[in-house]
Amino acid sequence: MSAASPFVSDVPVAQAHEAWRAARVAAGCPAAVDAVVVPVAEAVGRVTAEPVWALRSSPAFDASAMDGIAVRAERTVGATETRPVLLAPDEFEVVDTGDPLPVGFDAVVMREHVHRTADGGAELRAAVPPYQHVRSIGEDISATELLLPEGHRLRPVDVAACAAAGALELVVRRAPVVVVVPTGDEIRPLGVEPRPGEIPDTNSLMLAAQAREAGCSARVAEIVPDDPERITEALVAAAAAADLVLLIAGSSAGRDDYTARVVAGAGTLAVHGVAVRPGHPVVLGAVAGTPVVGVPGYPVSAALTFDIFAAPLLAELEGAAPRERPSTTAWLARKLPSAIGTDDWVRVRLGRVRDRVVATPLPRGAGVLTSLVRADGLLVVPSGVEGHHAGERVPVELLRGLGEIERTIVATGSHDLVLDLAASALRATDPLTTLVSSNVGSLGGLAALRDGLCHVAGSHLLDPATGAYTLPYVDRLFGPDGTVAVIRLVHRDQGLIVAKGNPLGLTGITDLVGSEVRYVNRQRGAGTRVLLDHELSRRGIDPARLTGYTREEHTHLAVAAAVAAGRADAGLGIQAAATAFGLDFVPVAQEPYDLVLRAEDVDSPQLHPLWTLLDRAEFRERVEELGGYSCAETGKRLR
Ligand SMILES: Nc1nc2c(c(=O)[nH]1)N[C@H]1C(S)=C(S)[C@@H](COP(=O)(O)OP(=O)(O)OC[C@H]3O[C@@H](n4cnc5c(N)ncnc54)[C@H](O)[C@@H]3O)O[C@H]1N2
Ligand code: MOO
């Protein structure tokens, strides 16, 4: 590959690992970090560089396992309830748990089974076998046995066992040193108020923390401007002090993207561009005998690049097996397209709906760090697969315990801020209760419910023919036979989200007609879209007369964001979304927002916390404080 080429290639991940390994060997990078001797108290988290042999036995003597008396077993032979054996004071000795067994005795009788006599003797009503309640020497560990192999990451139980076996100093690999080098003219240290166009250095914080979590010692260098000479200087200095350098950003093809060139100039460039998304333009190489990863600047790319490339190398440097995440099989809640030719790392939320774990994909953008914050699991769509259908079974790596996932309420459908508020309130009441909501529009939610992919479908679908909400659609999809329950969540105002001060003086739907108002619409299948179409049709307005009718956003907040950024003048949505962006709101209609679910699930323990919450006056007050909501019918079962 030409070092000067601005274009990144598409090497498969396995091939990238191989090419990087070969380049590291050729550049003389050490295969492992040095072994050091550390006191056992400081060894947790380190990896053994030598096997640990037991220096002494544990217990080191025969010990009493119970509080009671030490006896000679043969003296108890024949003792029964009716014919107890009486021991004279010199035929037993009182012992406590852990005491050495006194010489001449071979068994212990628990206090509870001993009847002391007035003259200081002891009456036994059962015979005891030899070594009853005695922990014999070496029961736990025998001197000279192999306690731990080489390459074992030490846990609290391991160091305790080492100490018991007399191994008070251990030979371990020292913690690998990771130096993180942030680059970019626009990057500012945390705590400095960023001016327009500037970005706080959140990646260094995250990558250093990831390195520490992986057992390394990590340091963040000063932010380097986009200047190839200064980046080279910083890289060479970091390489001299580190076992791995993470050089952030500048990995792709922009005017100020120098990472690949700098690595090639200062050492060896092995790979520029891997068939993985996010993380595609990653740079792998070595400088001055130190491995270097050019970490793409987008935060999700940065985090995943650490997992995919840095973490396995760091484990290898310590001589340990890479950490693995547990995995499970899940059913996809909705369609997941994926480009052929790259491994697609998709962040998903998980919840159990009846007998299946359901995975709902989160936003895919490499800049959407909250997709990783909210993820319960990671799903890789391999490069040879062109995505998955809704309802397909997929393997998922778990980022959260299955116990929590079992208790997650999965809400799919139209999005409403009240669901977010409910999710937060449920958590506050019980940290094990999670509500996961994903936005696929009202119709999409009902389809997910029909396919067993969610517990509740949030819906606000108006039937233009009857003017009724939700029920006509439920009848059409599920039949009127009562298999489905409908519970009212709230009433909410829908209206035009407009710029602060309503500069165009919009008063309602009719004002949208004409080219001077740039409208931003919701996607097909969204209840808000149905409402707009209804409002247009009952006024006899052809949708084609709205400028921007075909421009679609997928959430109320995205519509508000478009107005806030000045990309649109108006969009139909809820008042809370306008409030969130400091925008104005022109009410158009009030509509109910309902939760549709399987009737048999209404009484399920998983959903119970939600109904309790909807009954709480304090919760209703908080909903109404959001603005544009009424809780007059909240919790009411309509079917
Ligand atoms: N023409 C092309 N453009 C881009 C390509 C491509 O192949 N051809 N790849 C895209 C992909 S994919 C990714 S990923 C990014 C990688 O970007 P860079 O590594 O070059 O990084 P920058 O462009 O400098 O920054 C991207 C983004 O990340 C922010 N950033 C940078 N450093 C930090 C930091 N320390 N903390 C927080 N955020 C950071 C930066 O401000 C930018 O917003 O390139 C695409 N473009
Ligand atoms: O490959 Mo980039 O990391 O998708 O955004």
TrEMBL record:
Its EC number is 2.10.1.1. It holds the Pfam family MoeA_N. SMART domains: MoCF_biosynth. It comes from the Bacteria. GO terms for molecular function: metal ion binding; molybdopterin molybdotransferase activity. It is an enzyme of class 2 (transferase). Pathway: Cofactor biosynthesis; molybdopterin biosynthesis. Keywords: Magnesium, Metal-binding, Molybdenum, Molybdenum cofactor biosynthesis, Transferase. GO terms for biological process: Mo-molybdopterin cofactor biosynthetic process. Residues 179-316 form the MoaB/Mog domain. One of its GO terms (cellular component) is cytosol. Its cofactor is Mg(2+). It catalyses: adenylyl-molybdopterin + molybdate = Mo-molybdopterin + AMP + H(+). Catalyzes the insertion of molybdate into adenylated molybdopterin with the concomitant release of AMP. Belongs to the MoeA family. This is Molybdopterin molybdenumtransferase. It comes from Actinophytocola xanthii.
